Amino acid sequence: MDFDKVLSAAYTAVIDQKGENPVILDLRELTVVTDYFLITTGRNPNHLKALADHLLEKLGDLGLTPFRREGDQDARWILLDYGFLVIHLLGQDERDFYRLEELWYGAKRLTPTIA
């Protein structure tokens, strides 16, 4: 699997749907749980759902299906778990409260190319 291609596709999908402040964290040297986090903020529950649906479509085009999808009912934090990549789609309050970037402060930040 071409991880760079997947990360680029996921990042582009978030940008396409106007996800706010997207960041990809490289966690490979910090944990065995996953290799990468993609974190972005949505403006409201409808926006978060649109982000999730667009990501599912674009990554599905690459033959990927998440192992787990959580958070659709509240749509304040939607998680898409692809094993090597965990995508966190958060409302602004949730992103400010949980501060995932600070929790994983030792992670490298990646900026993939826009596909």
From TrEMBL:
Organism: Capillibacterium thermochitinicola
Gene: rsfS
BP-aspect Gene Ontology terms: cytosolic ribosome assembly; negative regulation of ribosome biogenesis; negative regulation of translation
Family: Belongs to the Iojap/RsfS family.
Function comment: Functions as a ribosomal silencing factor. Interacts with ribosomal protein uL14 (rplN), blocking formation of intersubunit bridge B8. Prevents association of the 30S and 50S ribosomal subunits and the formation of functional ribosomes, thus repressing translation.
Protein name: Ribosomal silencing factor RsfS
Self-association and partners: Interacts with ribosomal protein uL14 (rplN).
GO molecular function annotation: ribosomal large subunit binding
HAMAP family: Iojap_RsfS
